[in-house]
Specification:
alpha+beta; 4-stranded mixed sheet; globular; 9 helices; about 210 residues
Length: about 210
Amino acid sequence: MQRTQFNYSLLLLFIFCVSANSFAQKNKKNWDPAILAKANTAKDDATLTVEEKKVILYMNLVRLDPAAFVEIELKHYMDSTKLNDGYTKSLIKTLAATKPMDAVAPSKALNDFAKEHAIKFGKENKIGHGNYKDRIKNIIGNYNNAMAENCDYGNDNAFNIVMSLLIDEDIKDLAHRKNILNPIYKFVGVSIKPHKGYEWNCVTDFGG
């Protein structure tokens, strides 16, 4: 009798979880199709993977409409992960004070630049930007001498990559968040590659 009761309880719990998830999905706000289309600048870039294209898509969504990003993506993310720390709260404040800006477009030169670094540091089990100032010497002039680089580790899912960089936990100057939300940047390159120590690393390079 106890075993039957236990299985019945599990069944009720399963039904509740499925119902709650369905309710959350039905009530999740959706993006304006026009904004989605405007954000999808990488859709025709054959050099990028699906997830790399999505990284650009999510970064563009937060750039094009920061307030909507909070309501549609960030709050849903916080509900699903139960994350509600100081960094997440500061991101809400940042986006509330951020004005909409232009989307970034993919650049083959920046894609190649990001790919080279992601492959190299992934194989060598390293993190960070290495000799960044030397690496950009031959390319920065093409982007009005304005470039920046973000690196994320442990994620191969585009949404999780972008959320990690925006929340920027334990990064005191919030450099990754600032790079994504900097209107000076007009172009971007993205590469997600395997990493010996963290399984995955994603490099995004921005150009002015």
